[in-house]
Amino acid sequence: MTSKPAPFSCFATLLFVSGSMASDKPPNFSWVAPGQLAGLAMPRLPAHYRYMHEHGIRHLVSLTERSPPYHDTCPGIQLHRLRITDFCPPSPEQIQRFLQIVDDANAKGEAVAVHCMLGFGRTGTMLACYLAKTQKITGVDAIHEIRKLRPGSIETHDQEKAVVQFHHRIK
């Protein structure tokens, strides 16, 4: 007789669901603030959630219109949905909500990961807003820094404009 694993255990849930204990680094994964905030492409395998959980990530902010697959295989990572159309900028309210999720999680010692489909446009835009706020740098400088850390980030003029306008609102 096989018993179902405890719902709080990402490790046990992944073992139960996938039959594997392996973890794999998610596509386009990198830390922007080590131990606090990471960006990535959409996680597509249970092993991607295992990797995030092993690295202290307890919150996943999804910027895509559809939920990431297998997010329910790791109850140790809370999913937050902020649906943004591909190649579009986030609204000021979505930026504020994202930053609040990061602040609240970090205050509890928990890391956050944010993703869109490929981890460039919408993800890069949110990460640049985070840097503008936390590093107290201009929107333009935040865009340059994210593009240095994550080449190809922030794909459209409207996404760039969202970062610059965010900086103007907070300064």
Question: In terms of topology, how is this protein built?
Answer:
Layout lengths: L9 H9 L11 E4 L3 E5 L4 H9 L2 E6 L15 E4 L10 H16 L3 E6 L4 H14 L4 H11 L7 H14 L1
Parallel strand pairs: 2-5, 3-4, 3-5
Antiparallel strand pairs: 1-2
Describe, in plain words, how this protein is organized in 3D.
With 171 residues, this protein is of the alpha/beta class. It has a single domain, classed as Protein-Tyrosine Phosphatase, Chain A (Alpha-Beta Complex). Helices cover 43% and strands 15% of the residues. It contains 6 helices and 5 strands. Strands 1-2-5-3-4 form a 5-stranded mixed sheet, with helices on both faces. A hairpin with a 3-residue loop joins β1 and β2. α4 crosses α5. The longest helix has 16 residues, at 92-107. The protein is globular. It starts with 9 loop residues before the first helix and ends with a helix. The model is unreliable at 1-9 and 11-19 (pLDDT under 50). Its EC number is 3.1.3.16, 3.1.3.48. Protein phosphatase that mediates dephosphorylation of proteins phosphorylated on Tyr and Ser/Thr residues. In vitro, it can dephosphorylate p44-ERK1 (MAPK3) but not p54 SAPK-beta (MAPK10) in vitro. Able to enhance activation of JNK and p38 (MAPK14). It is found in: Cytoplasm, Cytosol; Nucleus.
